[in-house]
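Morning F.,

Quick status update on the modeling queue. The single chain you submitted on Monday has been processed. Sequence for confirmation:
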Amino acid sequence: MAEMAKCYPRGGNFLKKLFHRFFTTDTIEWFQSSGVALKTEADGRMFPVTNSSQTIIDCLLREAAKYNVAIQMQHDVKSISITESQFILQTSNNKTIAADYLCVATGGLHKPEMYQWLKNLGHSVSEPVPSLFTFNMPSHPIKELMGVSIEDVLIKISGTKLQQQGPVLITHWGLSGPCVLRLSAWAARELAGRKWQFNIIVNWLPQYNESQMRQALQQLRFQLASQQIFHKNPFDLPRRLWEFLLQQSAVPEETRWADLPAKQQNLLIKNLVSYECEVKGKTTFKEEFVTAGGIALNEIDPNTMMSKIVPNLYFAGEIIDVDGITGGYNFQNAWTTGFVAAKSIGLS
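Structure tokens below.
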């Protein structure tokens, strides 16, 4: 549970307490007992065997129907007021809903003004900013390598200590993949402050630093002396990326390893282990979009998910200031906090 909590850039310690109430094993058991067959991918992520999110939706709808839960769509909440014993919700279609208990589980709200009706109840909100996004590099030549994937890359945000290591995918707009998404999560607030205009330093071979790479190239000059550099890739890099980095280092195509000039060698070392790229913007996708920010955690009781400010007001999911990296962690936040909130309301 402690290791799982480390996968949340914000709110990990808060969730760690809740994981003792409802953890990943409980999630698996609940869905399987509710008729959803699950499978485990090689990377540990779990999906329904149908590979369809509709399977999960149908399961939740069946459970809701079993307990006579009324689902009302297209009821945009405009305001919440409190009487002596009830919450009064006013919706955009002029409907009034009264409730003894209220659980807000709207997911992340992308605009600060959407939190206003919660602020009016006295709650503080950590400003929402995007998380889990890819890096746009509109004018960078690396886009020519669209479709190339690299299994192990180290990327650092220039001028910070923020870095992540893992698989990277080069796309027609820039860089994507688990490494980029995780880095965007940990750096969400830093990058929002920079308006998503920043530089990254890429080490395509993270097992090497600059001095180690210099030593490796010196050895290769002797071991592969008569072979052409373009035709002999000694590193575990995709061919297209290797040739691209050689071109970026101004290495002529016919150059043999023994004839590699010092200037080009220095450029190649830099491009292999500290390749600097300018990022100009982000791209988010429906399946990736997560909001960093939300209701302040010090205003929520972690034992019940009830507000410390407004009795009988509960929270669950991404509306609170918790967000995880890619890989199912944000779903687990929703399942765990939802379970604890529902149990607490049921016992009240």
